[in-house]
Design brief:
This is biotin--[biotin carboxyl-carrier protein] ligase. GO terms for molecular function: ATP binding; biotin--[biotin carboxyl-carrier protein] ligase activity. The chain is α+β, with helices and mostly antiparallel strands. The chain folds into two domains: about 5-210, BirA Bifunctional Protein, domain 2; about 215-265, SH3 type barrels (Roll). It is built from six helices and twelve strands. The chain has a seven-stranded mixed β-sheet with strand order 1-2-3-7-6-5-4, with helices on both faces. A five-stranded antiparallel β-sheet has the order 11-10-9-8-12, with no helix packed on it. Helix 4 packs antiparallel against helix 5 (about 180-195) and helix 4 (about 85-105) packs across helix 6.
Length: about 270
């Protein structure tokens, strides 16, 4: 099966660029934006060799896994554009729900899997990292903002030797192809991108995201650089910052960092 857009994505004007092998779909999208590409366009590859996650961490995607990015050039501020990552998380969770349902219908012995969104940009299954999202933005011609949302999902294989537990859909008994997941993702992206509506709909995105969030109300620590904030995961605010309620009654807004839940919070590992 070849990579293709879902009908809703196609009707919304999205185009598609497919690669057999590429270093990074995010890098390719930014290069195109610098040379005049305005999108909206999806880029997807069968194999990614030089992908990256947050803080320039490596994200290699072997054949069978899904590595994709969507590029849109929009008129908004970087702060507002950053909230689009929450819409991306919702889109990926919805796509995963759709393909896992299809897999269970084909194989009734498969168990239902619950996916959770981990602030700021991961999708978990059973507490293990299944997917990551990386949003990058850059000002291009006419002072418009090129926004690239990279989405990588472990479909057939999860990386080993990482500082966190990881899992693939195949490990969970969900036997689907990257092409099926990509098509579902483009459909869900068109839906949640429309709800987001240049940031005007972030209130609804925030509500939906919190309904699916991992760790709300639980002990959490967030490490940002050399500083660590610990307390209870209270909520996310109107800007997408994580709000930590500390033991002294302070509510601290965290804009970026690595999140550790529960007992792992005290040792700095998920």
């Amino acid at each position: 099966m070849a990579f293709s857009l879902g009908p809703r994505a196609a009707s919304a004007g999205y185009r598609l660029a497919v690669f057999d092998r590429i270093g990074s779909t995010n890098t390719e999208a930014l290069v195109r934006a610098r040379t005049g590409e305005t999108g909206p366009i999806w880029l997807v590859t069968a194999e990614q060799t030089a992908g990256r996650g947050r803080r320039q961490r490596s994200w290699i995607s072997p054949r069978g896994n899904l590595a994709s990015s969507v590029l849109e050039v929009i008129d908004t501020s970087p702060a507002v554009a950053a909230t689009l990552s929450f819409a991306a998380g919702l889109a990926l969770e919805a796509a995963l729900q759709a393909v896992s349902l299809e897999a269970r219908m084909r194989s009734p012995v498969s168990e239902k899997v619950t996916f959770h969104l981990k602030w700021p940009n991961d999708v978990l299954a059973g507490g293990r990292k299944l997917a990551g999202i990386l949003l990058e933005a850059e000002v291009v011609a006419r002072d418009r903002l090129a926004v690239v949302v990279g989405i990588g999902t472990n479909v057939v294989a999860a990386p080993e030797g990482m500082p966190y537990p990881a899992v693939a859909l195949r490990d969970l008994g969900i036997d689907i192809g990257a092409e099926d997941l990509f098509r579902a993702l483009t459909e869900a992206w068109a839906e949640f991108r429309a709800i987001w509506d240049m940031g005007r709909g972030f209130g609804e995105i925030r509500r939906l995201w919190l309904d699916r969030a991992a760790g709300v109300g639980q002990q959490v620590s967030v490490q940002s650089g050399q500083s660590m904030v610990s307390g209870l995961f209270d909520t996310i605010d109107k800007n997408g910052c994580l709000i930590v309620a500390t033991s002294d009654g302070t509510r601290v807004a965290v804009s970026a960092g690595d999140v550790y839940f529960g007992t792992a919070a005290s040792v700095g590992a998920t």
